[in-house]
Amino acid sequence: MWSNNSAAPFLLTGFLGSEAIHHWISIPFFIIYLSILFGNGILLVLIQNDHNLHEPMYYFLAMLASTDLGMTLTTMPTVLGVLLLDRREIAQRSCFTQSYFIHSLAIVESGVLLAMAFDRFIAIRYPLSYNSILINSRVMKIGLGVLMRGFVSIVPPILPLYWFPYCHSHVLSHAFCLHQDVMKLACADITFNRIYPVILVALTFFLDAMIILFSYILILKTVLGIASTEERAKTLNTCVSHISCVLIFYITVIGLTFIHRFGKHAPHVVHITMSYVYFLFPPFMNPIIYSIKTKQIQRSIIHLLSGHSRA
């Protein structure tokens, strides 16, 4: 219909073949989105109001919750628009902007998990120097570096999308805009847009995962050197929440990558479901994991619920 109209809006896609029950599918999505907003919002309120949580570990956790909120607020309007209102059209510029935020926030999330691993590494390897190494100004610089890396590194492949002509089909395969989805619709040389993301993924997600793995090998080495079994368990317990969040994030990233690379013959619903798992599962689980496994946050929640305010 729009084959000759390069500036025509793109069409988002929900669950192909299940359009008749989109309004029913939207109910669990709506509940999950509300849970993500509530869970991560509560974490941010707790960290801001409870002075016992004004420590580097919790500042990084606040960054993680903010990133999860950002990602959720970026995808939620179009996903619910498609499922609830059958609003499939999206202006090209809005699509490119959404794509920019989705990919940059994914890199930010990986960077925050790396920063959290650095925090645990310093806390366990150099406990006496922890407060002098991770001073507030250094935490802010790390946070700023993580943000800059995410928001600057994704500019080169996103910018060309704004001036590419689009003379193929304007139908996207998701209910949100992904760079790899949009670039395939361009009637232009997309070699750079194919190569750059592969290099970027290697230098961000893959490199971050390798550094996190290496830091935990060193942490484990330190923990095994602790004589007391009780102290060993106590020290490792401070890492359980972070390890869980890291595993959830990178397993979903790897799963999505494998489906895109090797699942060309997999049903469309598998691709779509995997992309939703990637975008919804980590932000949904992160606040739950930290609430269950972190005693300080549990205490803070109890104080909040019982109406106490801390000085």
Could you explain how this protein is built, in words?
It is a single chain. By secondary structure, this protein is mainly alpha-helical. The protein contains 11 helices and 2 strands, in the order βααβααααααααα. It has helices spanning 22-49, 56-85, 92-125, 130-133, 136-153, 155-158, 179-183, 191-224, 229-262, 268-293, 295-305, and strands at 10-11, 89-90. It has a two-stranded antiparallel sheet with strand order 1-2. α1 (22-49) runs antiparallel to α2 (56-85), α3 runs antiparallel to α5 (136-153) and α3 runs parallel beside α8. The longest helix is centred in the middle third of the chain and has 34 residues, at 92-125. It is globular and about 65 Å long. It starts with 9 loop residues before the first strand and ends in a 6-residue tail after the last helix.
Précis, in short:
This protein has 311 residues and is mainly alpha-helical.
Describe the secondary-structure layout:
Blueprint: E1 10-11, H1 22-49, H2 56-85, E2 89-90, H3 92-125, H4 130-133, H5 136-153, H6 155-158, H7 179-183, H8 191-224, H9 229-262, H10 268-293, H11 295-305
Antiparallel strand pairs: 1-2
Query: Approximately how much helix is present in the residues?
Result: over 70%
Beta-strand content bin: under 5%
Biggest β-sheet description: 2 strands, antiparallel
* End-to-end C-alpha gap: 63 Å
Mean pLDDT: 92
Poorly predicted segments: none
Number of continuous helical runs: 11
Going across the biggest sheet, name each strand in turn.
1-2
The number of strands is 2
- Tell me the Rg in angstroms: 21 Å
* Computed structural class: mainly alpha
Q: H/E order of the elements? A: EHHEHHHHHHHHH
> What is the approximate shape?
globular
Pfam family, one: 7tm_4
Transmembrane segments: 30-47, 59-80, 100-122, 142-164, 195-219, 240-263, 269-290
Protein name: Olfactory receptor
Keywords: Cell membrane, G-protein coupled receptor, Membrane, Olfaction, Receptor, Sensory transduction, Transducer, Transmembrane, Transmembrane helix
